[in-house]
Amino acid sequence: MRIDIITVLPELLESPLSHSIMKRAQNKGLLEVHLHHLRQWAVNEYGQIDDYQYGGGAGMVMMCEPLANAIEHLQKDRKYDEIIYLTPDGERLDQKIANQLSLKENLLFICGHYKGIDERIREHYVTKEISIGDYVLSGGELAAAVLVDTVGRLIPGVLNDETSALFDSFQDELLAPPVYTRPADFRGWKVPDILLSGDLKKVEEWRYEQALKRTEERRPDLLK
Ligand code: 6GU
């Protein structure tokens, strides 16, 4: 998979994409992420990419021309399966959307800032709008990092047995069960006996019950 990201703050995306599983995905050649600084397509020598909004009101809007030129420049080299605008008024990201996107070959993300981007870019280029939750971030970059991570780790071959996505919270509509590691007794706080029993079937049943219990308690909405 290749992901291109148009941003005014590439620095904000560099570190999250350079470590751990995202690093391994890229080193294995399974994921390529390319950051594109929007200022390259600024409308003047001052690097302008935003302007006051029509109708008045506080806050700048990212202009059509730099974004259209950036998108069209990138489209010359490849056809994108989706052009995704990260915005708090987009469709709320969940595991189902992540699973769907993980099957794509070429994705283009657009990170907004200030009051957002000119509506005409959304109408004429953007094919999907995604929010990562009901709260406001200062820009789309952190949301884009979240989206690359959640989609990237689902690309076949990125995770191994140890990091398998199969038992993640949400992958089967349940939250993950509690986990423990050594020692079996830490200050008198004991690991549940079943996990030490060696009976794999019992362990599996216990994990399923715990996942169900946790989901009922914390996220009953997932069980509906
Ligand atoms: Cl995608 N962008 C911004 N700016 N804020 C958000 C968001 C995105 N998702 C949730 N809050």
TrEMBL record:
Protein function: Specifically methylates guanosine-37 in various tRNAs.
Superkingdom in the source lineage: Bacteria
Reactions that this protein is recorded to catalyse: guanosine(37) in tRNA + S-adenosyl-L-methionine = N(1)-methylguanosine(37) in tRNA + S-adenosyl-L-homocysteine + H(+)
Matches recorded under PANTHER family: TRNA (GUANINE-N(1)-)-METHYLTRANSFERASE (PTHR46417)
Entry protein name: tRNA (guanine-N(1)-)-methyltransferase
Subunit structure: Homodimer.
EC number: 2.1.1.228
EC class name: transferase
Stretches that traverse the bilayer: none
Organism: Paraflavisolibacter caeni
InterPro entries xref list: Alpha/beta_knot_MTases (IPR029028), tRNA_m1G_MeTrfase_C_sf (IPR023148), tRNA_m1G_MeTrfase_TrmD (IPR002649), tRNA_m1G_MTases_N (IPR029026), tRNA_MeTrfase_TRMD/TRM10 (IPR016009)
Domain tRNA methyltransferase TRMD/TRM10-type per the UniProt entry, residue ranges: 1-224
Alphabetical list of Pfam families matching this protein: tRNA_m1G_MT
Entry keyword set: Cytoplasm, Methyltransferase, S-adenosyl-L-methionine, Transferase, tRNA processing
Cell compartments where the protein resides: Cytoplasm
GO biological process: tRNA N1-guanine methylation
Molecular function in Gene Ontology: tRNA (guanine(37)-N1)-methyltransferase activity
Record's GO cellular component terms: cytosol
